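Feature request, filed as a ticket because there's no other form

It would be nice if the structure record came with a short human-readable summary line next to the tokens. Right now we just get the raw output. Example of a typical job, pasted below so the devs can see what we mean:
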Amino acid sequence: MRAVCQRASEARVRVDGAVVGEIGTGLVVLLGIARDDEEALVERVAGKVARLRVFADDAGRFDRSVMDVGGGVLVVSQFTLLADTAKGNRPSFTGAAPPEEAEPLYERFCAELRALGLEVATGVFGAAMAVELVNDGPVTIVLDA
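Raw output as currently delivered:
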């Protein structure tokens, strides 16, 4: 599993031109689910994302999480994060979980964040999406699990 977490002052995702998910201050999480990922890993990574201290405290240090600042999380499924580019110029996606395995884990990830009290917005699993964000900082953290 790979989660690319971007601190945002605002973000939204569109499908066919219509906004399907939107947050103000918070995190945009691009989530790639691998073939061998399991629910326990999903729960652990969701907890890590929720507690990731990438928001500034009064002294300007990264010491507050999205939970601490009352922010939202926009979660977008992105199998291309698991691309293997070791050979040739065409990425291979054989390490990514097939949709029928990935979607329940994606939904579980979102449910875990909600269970922690976070506002969660999402894209549409498997759809072609346009993700818009104002990356605050910019701050981008990659979590490989």
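Something like this underneath would help us a lot:
The chain has a mean pLDDT of 97.
The beta strands are 2-15, 18-23, 26-32, 55-56, 62-64, 72-77, 119-122, 130-144.
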